[in-house]
Every structure is written in structure tokens, then in C-alpha cells.
Specification:
mainly alpha
């Protein structure tokens, strides 16, 4: 499929997402589930069309919708996808902050292993370009793992 058709498809998904977020007389609350799905579909279309800025924007909106829906694990997954998009763009400036954000969401959801993994993946992406930031991410990942081990040890002692 050509990139223009993929962009048209993405715009349709965005339209549906925005429609699901609107409230009215008979619809009192936004439907974040539908909005999440549509924004992620739009992001996929934009990624296939190599329109990475729009892809990033849609993934960020999907993450916001997941957070509104209290689905923190899926919001963190969206942030990890944004990190991969930034890697494709060779835009490494935001990766550290997004990795920390994903880590916090994973921890709040109760998935410390995923939190440490997200930090590790992001650190590997930026270790050649920004070694100090990568070191910071690795140190944070170690702290997360150490907390897991302390709780595990205390549970069985």
C-alpha cells in the first residue's frame, strides 16, 4: 500500500479516536478504550508510511488515553514504542525521560521486571551517543532490580 493511502488510513483512525473522546448529551464520558486502539492503529499506519513525527504523536496520545483508563502497563508500552520511533529518527534527546516515565508506570502497575527491562533497552540505544545518560538508566535499572531482590529475600526469610 502506498504511503499516501496509509496516511489517509491513519487520518481516519485519528478521526475515530477523536470522535470517541467527545462527550455529549447522551454520552457523558469519553470512551478511552476505543481512542487507545484507534490512536495505536494510526501510529502503525504512520510508521508504515515513514511519517515518524505523526507516529510519535499518536503513540503519545494513546499513552495518555491508557493512563486515563488506568491501564498503566499499556501506557508504558506506548512510551517504549515512542523510544523505538525516536531511535529510528536518530533523536536521542527524549529517550532518557521517556524511559524513566515508562519505568514509573511499570512499577505502579506492579511489573518491576518490565520496568528494569525498559530502562535497559533504552540505555542500550543511547550508550554510544550519550554514555552519561545511559549510565543513569543502567543505575536506575539496578536499583529497580535490587528492590525486587530485597522483597523476594524478605518474603522467604
Amino acid at each position: 500500500m502506498s504511503s499516501s493511502k496509509k496516511i489517509e488510513e491513519a487520518l481516519e483512525h485519528i478521526r475515530l479516536a477523536e470522535k470517541s473522546l467527545k462527550t455529549g448529551l447522551l454520552k457523558w464520558r469519553p470512551d478511552y478504550d476505543i481512542a487507545c486502539d484507534e490512536y495505536q492503529k494510526a501510529a502503525t499506519c504512520y510508521r508504515n508510511a515513514k511519517s515518524l513525527d505523526q507516529c510519535k504523536e499518536c503513540l503519545m496520545k494513546a499513552a495518555e488515553c491508557h493512563m486515563e483508563n488506568r491501564s498503566l502497563f499499556h501506557a508504558a508500552k506506548c512510551f517504549e514504542q515512542v523510544i523505538l520511533v525516536l531511535k529510528e529518527q536518530n533523536n536521542f534527546g527524549e529517550i532518557e525521560s521517556l524511559a524513566h516515565r515508562a519505568c514509573r508506570l511499570y512499577q505502579q502497575q506492579g511489573s518491576p521486571e518490565a520496568a528494569a527491562s525498559a530502562l535497559d533497552k533504552a540505555a542500550k540505544i543511547i550508550e554510544n551517543i550519550h554514555p552519561e545518560q545511559a549510565l543513569n538508566l543502567y543505575q536506575h535499572a539496578i536499583e529497580v532490580v535490587m528492590v525486587i531482590n530485597i522483597f523476594f529475600f524478605m518474603k522467604y526469610v
